[in-house]
Design goal:
By secondary structure, the protein is an alpha+beta fold. It has a single domain, classed as Cyclophilin-like (Cyclophilin), CATH 2.40.100. It has helices at 3-31, 79-90, 182-190; strands at 58-64, 67-73, 97-98, 101-103, 109-112, 144-147, 159-162, 174-180, 199-200, 207-215. Strands 3-10-1-2-8-6-7-5-4-9 form a 10-stranded antiparallel sheet. A hairpin with a 2-residue loop joins β1 (58-64) and β2. The radius of gyration is 18 Å and the shape is globular. The model is unreliable at 1-18, 20-27 and 37-44 (pLDDT under 50).
Length: 216
């Protein structure tokens, strides 16, 4: 094949990759939301603060019915999010709650943090968006922990655990990464969605029994 032909094919390949990435971002930008039923939630609240500064380290130890998942939090990059979630955890907000949603096609996440287990619940405040990634391919790599939302500036308590590299619209605050227990989420994903399909309650139920926060 001539160098001109190779160049043309390379250009076509680049265009195809860019198009696929763009489509994935468009789809992902609306797929990880939730329907908020709390109409009294304030968009600019006095957020709860666990006293974690940008200079601190913070670790969330999530004890589930399947084992422990440890998250290294990013208080330097997402201080409002980390402090709000740490405060909720200290108040036992996440205790005995289920991870209500698994997605296994296009995006690869397990969504948790809703005390109602319905996908509509959350606290009485919204957290502003923080630490949003670039709109690039695999901008939410495996191990990423980010916030679900119902639109810009509407994060509450629902978060998702990425178990396989995922491309999304850059709309979800990244606040930590899984340092232990990723295989637990991957095992849940391997068992699929309850009743089949690619989006819904996981076939293997996941219950958060407690969340401990260690501040260093």
């Amino acid at each position: 094949m001539s160098s001109r032909g190779e160049s043309g094919n390379a250009k076509k390949s680049t265009v195809y990759i860019a198009l696929i990435t763009a489509i994935a971002i468009i789809i992902g930008s609306v797929i990880l939301g939730f329907n908020s039923s709390n109409t009294s939630t304030s968009a600019n609240p006095d957020l709860p603060n666990a006293g974690i500064s940008a200079d601190n380290s913070a670790e969330f130890s999530i004890l589930t019915n399947l084992g422990e998942i440890i998250i290294e939090a990013f208080p330097d990059k997402a201080p409002l999010t980390v402090n709000a979630l740490a405060s909720l955890a200290q108040d036992n907000y996440f205790n005995n709650t289920i991870c209500h949603r698994l997605t296994t096609e296009g995006i690869f996440v397990l969504q948790c943090g809703d005390p109602t287990g319905t996908g509509t619940g959350g606290p009485d405040f919204y957290i502003p968006d923080e630490n949003l990634p670039q709109p690039t391919e695999n901008n939410y790599p495996a191990g990423t922990v980010a916030m679900a939302n119902a639109g810009p500036g509407t994060s509450g308590s629902q978060f998702f655990l990425v178990y396989q590299d995922t491309t999304l619209g850059p709309n979800y605050s990244i606040w930590g990464k899984i340092t232990k227990g990723l295989q637990i989420v991957q095992s849940v994903a391997s068992q699929g969605v309850n009743g089949g399909g690619s989006d819904g309650a996981p076939a293997q139920s996941v219950t958060i029994e407690s969340v401990a926060v260690t501040i260093g």
